[in-house]
Amino acid sequence: MRTTFSGISIALRALQAQQVSLDITGHNVANANNPNYSRQVALHAATKPFPMPMMGYTPSKGQLGTGVEVSQIVRMRDNFVDLRLRQQLQGRNFWETLEEGLRQVELFFNEPSDNGISHALDQLWDSLQDLSRDPELTSVREVVVQRAHVLVEAITGTREQLQRLSENLNDNIPIKVGEVNILAERLAALNVQLGKVSATGSMPNDLLDERDALLEELSQLVDIDVVQDYGNMVSVTIGGASLVHRGTAYKLAVARVPDEKWANYERNEIVWADTGSAAQISAGEIGAMLAMRDQINGTDEMEGISAALDKWTLEFVQEFNRIHAQGYDLGGHGNDDAPEAYFFVFADQSDLEKPDYDKVSFAALQVRVNPLIAEDVSLIRASAVKGVKGNGDNARELARLRHTPPKDKQTTIGDAFNAIIANIGVRTQEAIRMTENQVVLENHLRNLKESVSGVNLDEEMANMIRFQHAYSAAARMMTAVDETLDIIINRLGIVGR
Asked: Would you say 246 and 235 are in contact if contact means Cβ atoms under 8 Å apart?
């Protein structure tokens, strides 16, 4: 039944509702520059009217209301945009990290330039052409050896840089895995808090913002799938395996696996700590690090950049040595398998025997100029005729390798090397193009997210004025009701006293 004080109750509810709305507006303004904050809105709803029928009130007139209340504090968020953004972050970080690695590889090769392998190779061809014209001049022979040393240094230097990059990527994998485990533990702990607050019927808006920020951070490292659970908790999986399930976090670990292709090298492979099974990671920063490492080292499905350089070096040395061994030096020795017959040798094999090309490991790291020839340039087999010092036909034959494919090959040595550079360039351009596309899409999604969740200060100021006026009106209504009650209580019934 409606009482005399119902008006005060209505005014009080109005004051309380507007006060809550003002508090929420202040909270929005305070977090205007917080990138992880989602704008909150107070939903007003009329409180239950007085039950019908009631004394002294005709039902046909309609129910008599009892005021207003804040029914819910809503967090403005689009779950679909959140999902798309997480997927985009996985892709963007993958291609961005891959692009960075491939750009470093391009710098290692430094092509085209005066310091790259191609230039050093051209210089060697030129020196051999000069040798073919003046095979007896010691100075010309010394230039050939010097140019060969420059070429070897360019090859080994590039190969060593590739090795270091691969090792750095491999060594950073455990660090990134540790970051994933930390984020997983924080998510699991946050799930517990969310469950407790949600059980009370409250909406933990700020905790949900913290949760979504952690999910975005996690998606930058690995490719994840997120499923909403009861009590505002989430379950997170990687490749179908659980990383976070409610209040439990399942850790990733790193297993060191010997690489059959690389002596004294152990790959860091990511596994699940509890089962030891391989974790399926194909995106995010960690996915890119694994992919970049495999692009350098090679996999069963793909020849690595280092392997391609090793293969090219071995083919070049084998063909160069074959032609060199057919010639004759200034002493008339040649056309045999003597130690000095081989212009290039490998550091892991003896200089006093014929190179065993089938047993060469990491040719680009091991190649060097034969020390015997480096110490005595007269051993260079420039002549094609025994005992004829002035003959430079064999040196000319070596110089022709610039334009002539090696035996049983379709491309020249220079073209084969250019193919390696072209392949790297194609991979780099693809990474650049994909990164640019991913950034555009990410910016679009962030704009969509901001349009829904972002705080607009102009809008909040307008809301603040609106709630302030409503508060003032409710206060004035309470004053009016108070004045009415004062008349009823203190002034009625005193006439004639």
From this structure: yes
